[in-house]
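User: Teach me something about this protein's shape.
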Amino acid sequence: MHGDRYFCFTAYHDNEQEEVGDTLTHTFIKHEWPHCSTRYFYFWGEVSGVACQSTTAIFKLHFEKEKAPPKPEVMFTFNSIEPQLRSPGTGTLWKTLDLSHELPPGATGAIIQIQNTDISVLRRCGLRKPSSTAEVYGQLMHGNYTWGLVGIDADRKIEAYAPIADVMIYWIMGYTGSNVHFLDNAHEFTLVKQVWNDLDCSPYVPADADAAIFNVSALSGSLSRYAIRKKGSTDVHYSYFYQNFPILGLDENKKAEIWPIDVGVGNVRCFLTGYIVGGVKMHTNSIDISPAVLGSWQHQLISAYNDTTHFAIIETLGTAQVQPWGIRKGGSLRPILGTVRDHQWCYPHCDTDRLIDIYRSYEGMHFYEIGVTD
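Assistant: First, the predicted structure itself:
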């Protein structure tokens, strides 16, 4: 009996560290780990290309399902949380992400930072409310990141587009309050190339809407340039992009406008996904807040919304050079930098002094304040 052999059948899965090359810090991200399940881990590596036998202990970790956060007493237009890392996994499909343990009851949408951790290949990404059937997704440059707003359903779920490779990660940065509304199904505008097109939101937003939330996507690099602005603005921020989530002020007729270099599937497409009523101050013409000092994180003061400002709405513009850039809450130590500078939209949380941090690496890179929230 004691001499009998016993066999244990299990499945192994290799998880590469996030850092490239030989490092002193090793970060591992475990995707698609169901709540209330247990995983066992050990570590191994290579020396001069030769795999070394692991001598580490086996670590047992149980993934507990976290309790949903309580509904806050005060909910602003945009609200910050400690960034939470999520991934839809792989499959070139829309995958459901349950955010009920990150977002509180009463939230209407999620503030997401999307990061392409592949340092050499463009990958597709996308966000949509679960009720939406819009097939709207675009590329994200290698090593780069962007920000987006997406509506949640009654169960506080969203849908995220999963690329073929397991390299796209979604940081949950915050949530939207009750004055931010998302359409159940995104509306696509019909566009004409190389002219200013009116984005008439009046059939889809109420008369008191102050801002509109858009999803602008493209898959073609050479035909993925556009400029977008509030109707009546003189801004012309024209550059390459692939996947953007602009927030724009609306004129008295509830219009914005866009100038695309080319249109249609694979080129520039523009969708209305939501709107904001109150709690936001949108500029007709943007304010250039680009730091004068290059190559390091710099504090930048944001405009006031009444007595306070919680978030800034920032449009960034560059010339597609392979240069680092970044934007974050003032005083934050989050080191995330993008590696390609083109055309992005960001929604950083401000500190109590209305400061955000910006990393600008060359003169051709600009950061424009489009608006601020309460």
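Now, about its shape. The CA atoms of residues 286 and 370 lie 5 Å apart. The mean pLDDT is 86. If you'd like, I can walk through any region in more detail.
User: That's plenty for now, thanks!
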